Automatic annotation (TrEMBL):
SUPFAM superfamilies xref list: Aminoacid dehydrogenase-like, N-terminal domain, NAD(P)-binding Rossmann-fold domains
Keyword Hydrolase among UniProt keywords: yes
Domain Tetrahydrofolate dehydrogenase/cyclohydrolase NAD(P)-binding: 139-282
This protein's name: Bifunctional protein FolD
Length: 295
C-alpha cells in the first residue's frame, strides 16, 4: 500500500479561488490589496521565488510592487526602502525576501516592518504575538502546513507531532502554532542536538521534516500510517529538488507531501491570504473610523 498524496498544488489552487472571491468583494469597496517584495542582491533562487509571488498575485487580482536592490545596498538604503513601503498606501502588505546579503542585519530589517503590513508573519511583532497567542499575521509555511493537513482530514487534536528543525521561519513557529488550543497537538521539536532522532520520529503521528538535510528521515524511522510533511528544499547534483524524507517512506506512511508540489505552493498561497487579510483589516479599521487604534 502506498501513502496518500497531500497535494499542496491542488490545495493552493483551491485557496487561490477562494481568495479571488474575497479580492472581488474588496474591489466592490474600492480596495485593492497590494503586495510589495523587497529583494536584495541577485541570488537566482530568490529571484525565482519572488517571480512566483508576483505571478500568484496577478492570478488572484492582487496588485504587486517590486523593489529590487543591488547586492551592495547599504543598511541605510534598505531602511529607507522599508520605510517607503510602510508609508505607501497602495502597499497593503509586503515581504523582505530572506536571506539578505551577509552585510545586512535581518533582525533589524524585520524589526522595521510595520506590523500591520507584515505579509510573511516573520516580523518581530508578529512572532511576539504568536508567542503571546494574540491575533496577528501567521508565518506562511507553518500556516500552510496546518491548512494542508486540515483540508486533507489529518487529525491534529491530540496528535503527537515531531518537528525536525528549529529554524525561525518554520520549525520554531510551527511548534507554537500546533500547540495552540485551536490545533491542540503535542509537539516535540527536534534539532541537530537531538540524541535519538529516530526514537522521536517513530513515536509521532505526524512528522515534519524542516532540517534541510536530504533523505534524513527514512522508512525505518516512522510509524506505520503516519502523515509526513516535507519542508526540505535541497538541490542534488542533477539540480533536482530533494527533501528531508527518503523515497522509501511512501510505502509505510499514511500521507506524504510530494516535494515539489507540497509545502512550497502552500507557503505561497498563505502569503496571498495574509495580504488579503491585512487589506480586509485595514479597510475595516478605516470604516469603523478607529484611526487611533494603530497609534
Ligand atoms: N521573507 C521570506 N519569505 C519566504 O516565504 C521565503 C523567503 N523569505 N526566502 C526563501 C524561502 C523559500 N520559499 C519558498 C516558497 C515557495 C516555494 C515553492 O513554491 N516551491 C515549489 C517549486 C518551485 C516552483 O514550482 O515555483 C514547490 O516546492 O513545489 C519554494 C520556496 C519562501 N521563502
Amino acid at each position: 500500500m502506498t501513502a496518500q498524496k497531500l497535494d499542496g498544488k491542488a490545495c493552493a489552487a483551491a485557496i487561490k479561488d477562494e481568495l479571488k472571491a474575497r479580492v472581488a468583494e474588496l474591489a466592490e469597496h474600492g480596495v485593492t490589496p497590494g503586495l510589495g517584495t523587497v529583494l536584495v542582491g541577485d541570488d537566482p533562487g530568490s529571484q525565482i521565488y519572488v517571480n512566483g509571488k508576483h505571478r500568484d498575485c496577478a492570478q488572484v487580482g492582487i496588485a504587486s510592487l517590486r523593489v529590487d536592490l543591488p547586492a551592495d545596498t547599504t543598511r541605510e538604503q534598505l531602511r529607507e526602502e522599508i520605510q517607503k513601503l510602510n508609508a505607501d498606501a497602495t502597499c497593503t502588505g509586503y515581504i523582505v525576501q530572506l536571506p539578505l546579503p551577509k552585510h545586512l542585519d535581518e533582525h533589524e530589517a524585520l524589526g522595521l516592518i510595520d506590523p500591520a503590513k507584515d505579509a510573511d508573519g516573520l516580523a518581530l511583532a508578529s512572532l511576539g504575538k504568536l508567542v503571546l497567542m494574540q491575533p496577528g499575521p501567521l508565518p506562511c509555511t507553518p500556516r500552510g502546513i496546518v491548512e494542508l493537513l486540515r483540508r486533507n482530514g489529518v487529525e491534529l487534536a491530540g496528535a503527537e507531532v515531531c518537528v525536525v528543525g528549529r529554524g525561525t521561519t518554520v520549525g520554531r513557529p510551527l511548534g507554537l502554532l500546533l500547540t495552540r488550543r485551536s490545533e491542540n497537538a503535542t509537539v516535540t521539536l527536534c534539532h541537530t542536538g537531538t540524541k535519538e532522532l529516530a526514537a522521536h520520529t517513530r513515536n509521532a503521528d505526524i512528522v515534519v521534516g524542516a532540517a534541510g538535510v536530504p533523505g534524513l528521515i527514512t522508512a525505518d524511522m516512522i510509524k506505520q500510517g503516519a502523515a509526513l510533511v516535507d519542508v526540505g528544499i535541497t538541490r542534488n547534483a542533477e539540480g533536482r529538488q530533494v527533501g528531508d524524507f527518503a523515497d522509501d517512506v511512501w510505502e509505510k506512511a499514511g500521507w506524504v507531501t510530494p516535494n515539489p508540489g507540497g509545502v512550497g505552493p502552500m507557503t505561497r498561497a498563505m502569503l496571498l491570504e495574509n495580504v488579503v487579510e491585512a487589506a480586509e483589516q485595514q479597510f475595516a479599521l478605516a470604516q469603523s473610523g478607529a484611526r487611533y487604534a494603530r497609534g
